[in-house]
Amino acid sequence: MSDIAVDVKDVSKRFRLAHGRYNSIKERVIHGGRAPTEEFWALKNVALQVSEGETVGILGRNGSGKSTLLKCICGVLQPTTGEVVVRGKLAGLLELGAGFQQDLTGRENIYLNGSLLGMSKKEVDRVFDAIVDFSELEAFIDGAVKFYSSGMYVRLGFAVAVNVDPDILVIDEVLAVGDERFQRKCIDRVKAFQKEGRTILLVTHSPDQVRAICDRAIVLSHGNVVSEALPGEAVRIFREGLLEEEGTLVVVPEEQPEERPIEVRPGPDVEHPVRITYAAHTYPRFEEVAYLSTGDSLTIGVGYHASIATDDVVFSLELRDNDGNCFMRTDTDILGLRFDLPVGPGLVNFVIDDVPLLDGKFSYSVGILSKGGVLFDWKEPAGSFDVMSPGKATGFITLPVRAVLAPPERESIALMAPQELAHLEPQV
User: Fold this and answer.
1) Which value, in Å, is the radius of gyration of the alpha carbons in the chain?
2) Nearest-5° angle of CA 302, CA 303, CA 304?
3) Measuring CA to CA, which residue among 76, 70, 97, 206 is closest to residue 154?
4) Three-class SS of residue 235?
5) DSSP label at residue 357
6) What integer pLDDT is reported at residue 253 of this predicted model?
């Protein structure tokens, strides 16, 4: 028996875009009454296999075909050419309010959605309380959903999707609508599904979610799969593709930043007026040893070239562990710095005076963006470094911990001990 849960076989999807209407009878007669249309291919020969128990992320800009692909997988849309084979019970959370009837209550919509997912009334009865509890909408469950906020839609839709006991869960970037606490709750449920061996397809605009959750990821651009790789590599290709002027992603082999001066395009670049030319790091004894010690200083330099004089430019820095998890992000705006750059080259140094890291290999990514958050350039990873700790502490980072033996007076113990233990006599 095949272990492939989702098999997308050379799927293409065509839409016809209308371009206005003919206003005169003469025009309608000449064109046979047909309105002018243009073919638009949202997907072009997309092939993808997802194994049972695998979590796959899908990255791409708006209009790249992500949602169309998921709708074809869920059966909401039929491919123009190609075939989609799904093995197992599938639950999809495709878009805000999808499947909800506006005039029905939350309670009625739970039963309606359950029936659409193939559940009987008795089966919905069995999980109804769990759905309401997860959604945290007890006070609103008997109100019409047309009065729900966007966050309430997401809560109810996700609660239904994860409580119908699916083999395959499909999520299309709606988690960004919920508040941060509910997002964490949803991610915890997704991770529980992973441990149970369920298959998950996830569309998100959060690269860190892809790194934290997914086993691999694909990158879509204009309906084409341009990359299928491990999460970190897929995120790198996705982010570098965001900087392409013409909107076409190109897979560029990863190189060591110390060996790659980035070619600066001649002439002004209005879309990306400041570009990264190189990134490098240094630390004490850099020329002597291939690692820094815990407590050393670390300087990460970002070389740039401004083709246009640009005010209020923000430089960002992310540090990641060996698994690609971001454990620190900062930028010059957070640090209270303002950089108004003239035309020409320059260098910005991020300096960490006392590195608190213990043994391990770490990488860094650097970016340049506007004050308003428009990305000018990004390099990921821009470099890596090793840390060796001379001490005996183990773990991830070192903290200035002190241990103090408290005096054996009752008052001292009462200040710190739990109330149920505060009555105990001190041992002398």
Assistant:
1) 27
2) 115
3) 97
4) helix
5) B
6) 43
* Stronger pLDDT, 262 or 348, i.e. the higher one: 348
Burial class (CB in 10 A: 0-12, 13-18, 19+), 318: buried
State the pairing for strand pair 274-282/298-306: antiparallel
Hey, CA dihedral for 73, 78, 84, 86, is it positive or negative?
Answer: positive
**pLDDT for the residue numbered 348:** 97
Q: State the burial class of residue 7 (Cβ atoms within 10 Å of its Cβ: 0-12, 13-18, 19+).
A: middle
Token pair, residue 220, equals 């879509």
Cα of 286 vs its chain's centroid, Å: 35
Q: How many CA atoms lie within 13 A of 299 on its CB side?
A: 10
Token pair, residue 336, equals 């209270």
Q: At 180, which helix (H) or strand (E)?
A: helix 180-195
**39 or 424, greater pLDDT:** 39
CB distance 124 to 109 below 8 Å: no
0.85 surpassed by pTM: no
User: What CA–CA distance (Å, rounded) separates 277 from 378?
Assistant: 11
Please give the distance of CA 360 from its chain centroid, rounded to a whole number. Answer: 25
Strand order in the sheet with 199-203: 90-93, 168-172, 199-203, 55-59, 216-221, 224-229
What whole-number percentage of the chain has pLDDT above 70? 81
| Spatial distance between the Cα atoms of 279 and 301, rounded to a whole number of angstroms | 6
Spell out the domains of the chain, with CATH numbers in brackets.
4-238 (3.40.50.300), 261-388 (2.70.50.60)
How sure is the predictor about 1, in pLDDT bands with cuts at 50, 70 and 90? very low
User: How many angstroms separate the Cα of 122 from the Cα of each of 85, 125, 133?
Assistant: 29, 5, 18
Burial (Cβ within 10 Å: 0-12, 13-18, ≥19) of residue 145: buried
Cβ within 8 Å of residue 122, ≥6 positions away? none
Strand ranges for 310-407 from DSSP E: 310-320, 326-331, 339-341, 344-352, 360-370, 375-388
d(C-alpha 344, C-alpha 165), whole Å: 58
